[in-house]
Amino acid sequence: MPSDGAEAPGPARPRPGAWVAAVVVGVVVLDQCTKAWAVNRLARGPLWVLGDDVGLRLTRNPGGAFSLLQGFTPVLALVAVVLTALLVRAVVRTRHPLTLLALALVLGGALGNLVDRLTRRPGFLRGAVVDFVVVGSFPTFNVADAAITVGAVLLVLAVLRGDADRAPTEGTAASPAGSAGEVRDGG
């Protein structure tokens, strides 16, 4: 034990790579499956759930968020590749569960839309993103967009709480030491 009163560092915590990868892959798979369904089913016309306010209608977005920058699809695709690399780097460096979940959702959404940019017509780096969820006057969106939005909100929450800057503490649910049978001293 150090003589200056500082605690000796504990064993390194394992990285939560499996569940983070599962979230990323899950978002991409769900996004691509729903887009395939939308392209197949909604090509015959929209499905309205609540009047003209909530429904499913097929659109293709060659631009960025909110259909901005429509003439810059190849640039947007390359920016998405760079952002994906930066997100992967952030995930690898992050330890806090809320921040990891937020980054995994954003990464999964970014990859889901990047797949469209790389594989959909009119061609590589020029593909239009398939959007199909309509809610009121909000821009039409897809599962990837929803994951990005939820991830961004969680990331803001993590930053506001200070979670993004620190690792989980001993005894939390995210920590291997935080089992139900753990006995703690009062000190």
Radius of gyration computed on alpha carbons: 21 Å
**Estimated share of beta-strand residues:** 5-15%
For the record, give the distance between the C-alpha atoms at the N and C termini, rounded to a whole number: 16 Å
**Helical content (DSSP H or I, runs of 4+):** 40-55%
Domains (count): 1
Enumerate how many helices there are, as a single number: 4
H/E element sequence: HEEHHEH
Secondary-structure content class: mainly alpha
Q: Which outline best applies?
A: globular
Main sheet properties: 3 strands, antiparallel
Question: What is the mean pLDDT?
Answer: 82
What does this protein structure show overall?
With about 190 residues, this protein is mainly α. The protein has one domain (about 15-165). It is about 45% helix and about 10% strand. The protein contains 4 helices and 3 strands. It has helices spanning about 15-40, 75-95, 95-120, 145-160, and strands at about 45-50, 55-60, 130-135. The protein has a 3-stranded antiparallel β-sheet with strand order 1-2-3. Helix 1 (about 15-40) packs parallel to helix 3, helix 2 runs antiparallel to helix 3 (about 95-120) and helix 3 packs antiparallel against helix 4 (about 145-160). The radius of gyration is 21 Å and the shape is globular. The protein starts with 16 loop residues before the first helix and ends in a 26-residue tail after the last helix. The model is unreliable at about 170-185 (pLDDT under 50).
